[in-house]
Every structure is written in structure tokens, then in C-alpha cells.
Amino acid sequence: MIVGGVEGGHGMADGQMTAAAFLIAELRRARVRRGWSQDELAKAVNYSASMVSAVELGQQPPTAKYLELVDRALDTGGLFGRMSTELVSLDRAQPWLRGWQAIFEQARAVRWYEPRYVPGLFQTEDYARAVFEAGGLLAPEEVDRRLTARMERQDVLHSERAPQIVAVLDEAVLRRRVGGRKVMRDQTLHLVGIATAHPRVRLHVVPRSAEEYPGLGGQFALAALPDGTELAYLECQVRGQELDQPQDLLRLQRVWEATLGEALPPQASIELMNEVAESWS
Questions:
Q1: 263-281 burial, b if ≥16 CB within 10 A, otherwise e?
Q2: In 75-170, alpha helices (H)
């Protein structure tokens, strides 16, 4: 998973995009090319907008009936139905993408704000385990499964396909105890290492001296895709929400600029993270 509580899957097999991931990307592309929102496509195929979103996020594999209706609505001559039966079926595991990961693996640039947790992509194994074990809501085997998946997904940071990432964390993320003092010290130093050495990651921290600012409304991420499309992703307790409407994107872009304006520059952020790490010693 990339952000706090959203579970993600894989779109890459041996470094290659899967047919399932390709189908998802093409479904979104065809809708955008027609100039339709997810709501408009939903009306045309008589499905809920949440179903359209879940399919485009890879949270739910599209059924044959769904693809038939999309093909008819977009007048594609049955293309998506054929892709599903003739291409996706060839994937050994059909690893459908889920949630934010679907967007992240296609993005060329990501702007990412987090007021609660260290983003999953930057979590240490001990911190991630503590997040999953919180409250005893997950069975031990589910904790292990999610932990393994999260650690594997961090490989994307070291791949040639890694996007440029600018991440802004509220200082509260570094101060909230997750998993004990040693876990927090190691996690904060891990962030320092990423901020110092990773060529495609820039980290900023909003200091606790900052007063109320727009980002405190909640986590969000903005992703720029290679085709020029921009998408936003919001996380909630139950499932993530993808946004692609211009008014929503404009609002979040303004929130991002205001939030970044409250954050410390990269070097000052690194110094603050080192200071916090010492406080956990």
C-alpha cells in the first residue's frame, strides 16, 4: 500500500505491464477521450459511478457484461470485451491493480500530502507492522500478507519507472508514537535517508509551529500521467476515491500550493527529522 490504509496490488509482472493493467488504463483513456466523467459513463452503462471508479482503480475486475456495455456506449466495436477474453486471460495470475497503486505505477510525477501516517512507500517494516496490528482488527495472517505486499511494492522506488515524488508530511506524523520509541527513531532516520539520497524524492515537513492550514482537511495525492491526464486520490477508512473532474483537481491543486507554502524547505525538513529522531532515542 502506498498511503495509510489503502491496500494495493501489482500492475507489473517481471517489469512488464500486465494485460489487466493495460485494460484498466485503456478503459480510462477511452472515457476521457470521449470527454465523459465517471458519472456520465456510469449513466450510459447503467452502473453506479462507484462501480466505474472501482473498475478504473483496479479494485474490482470488470465483468464481461460491464465491458460489453462500455464497448456499446463508447462505440468501440467490442474492443474491450476482446481484450479481456483474449489478452487478460493469458495472464497467469491476472493481478488486477488495486487503489492508489494503479495510478502510482503509471505516473510520471506525484505530489503527495500526508497528515497522519508515514506514507506506505516510505515505511519501515516495523512501522508498517505496527500500523496493520493497530487495534487488533486484522488476523495475524492478514497482517503478514499485507506487510509482505507493502514491502514488495517499495521496489518501485528503485525502478527505472519510479515517478518524481514530492511529499509533504505534517510534523505530527513524526511525533505520533507508532510501534514504540525505537520503531519511531528508525522510521524517522529512514525518512532522512530517503530525503538525503533518493534522486527522485523530495520531502517537506510542515512544522507544528504552523497554524491551521488547508492540508489538515485530509490526505490526498495528485498524479500526472504520461498522457497529460491528472488524477487525484483521496483515502478514507473504507476505500480510496479517485477524482478526475477539473473543479476537484483545481481545488486540490490550491490546497497543495497552500500546504507546500507552510512546509519547511528540504534541508530544513531533514534537520527537523533528525531532531525528532533524536527525541525518540
A1: bbebeebbebbeebbeebe
A2: 79-86, 100-104, 125-133, 140-153
Q: Which three cell numbers stand for residue 114?
A: 500526508
Answer yes or no: CATH 1.10.260.40 is held by domain 19-90: yes
> To which H or E segment does residue 154 belong?
none
pLDDT digits (tens, 9 = 90+) for 218-246: 999 999 987 777 888 888 777 677 787 78
Q: Which CATH architecture has domain 107-279?
A: 2-Layer Sandwich (3.30)
CATH 1.10.260.40 maps onto the chain at: 19-90
Cell match 509533504: residue?
A: 168
The confidence score (pLDDT) of residue 95 equals 39
pLDDT tens track for 189-213: 999 999 999 999 999 999 999 999 9
CA distance to 181, 195, 209, 222, 235, per residue, from 280 (Å): 5, 19, 19, 32, 28
Mean pLDDT, residues 24-39 taken together: 91
Q: What's the pTM value of the predicted model, to 2 decimals?
A: 0.68
pLDDT at residue 89 above 70? no
Q: Tell me the C-alpha to C-alpha distance, in Å, between residue 245 and each of 100, 224, 252, 278.
A: 17, 14, 11, 43
C-beta of residue 49 within 8 angstroms of C-beta of residue 241? no
pLDDT at 49 exceeding the cut of 50? yes
State the DSSP code for 71: H
Give Cα separations from 194 to 161, 222, 226, 230 (angstroms). Answer: 17, 20, 25, 25
CA distances from 196 to 11, 52, 65, 140 (A): 29, 40, 50, 35
State the residue for C-alpha cell 530544513: 268
